[in-house]
Design goal:
With about 90 residues, the chain is of the alpha+beta class. It has a single domain, classed as Glutaredoxin, CATH 3.40.30. It has 2 helices and 6 strands, in the order βββαβββα. A 4-stranded mixed β-sheet has the order 4-1-5-6, covered by helices on one side. Strands 2-3 form a two-stranded antiparallel ribbon.
Length: about 90
């Protein structure tokens, strides 16, 4: 995958503090990890609950439960972020 890929991050609502809403706190590390590798991130809310999907060139390259991602941070110590970055860079 060339540098500076456009990665669309679809994220659904999840429950926190008794309310189900779209929140980006768990996506910050993922965004930081992808940006550090030169990729452009675009966040798009989806209707599918608890899910994060990464799409590169209209191809789904990674999917996980949103609560698998660490809250906040830079993504460097999050193994799920590392797996996601690897999947993006292996995309065609």
């Amino acid at each position: 995958m060339p540098k500076n890929a456009r990665v669309t991050i679809f994220y659904g609502p999840y429950e926190s503090s008794g309310a189900v809403e779209h929140r980006t706190f768990r996506l910050r590390g993922l965004q930081a990890a992808l940006s550090a590798r030169g990729h452009q991130c675009v966040l798009v809310e989806s209707r599918e609950r608890n899910v994060v999907e990464l799409v590169v060139h209209e191809e789904l390259v990674f999917r996980c439960h949103i609560k698998q991602l660490q809250f906040g941070g830079d993504g460097n110590l999050d193994p799920v972020c590392e797996e996601a970055v690897t999947a993006v860079e292996a995309a065609y």
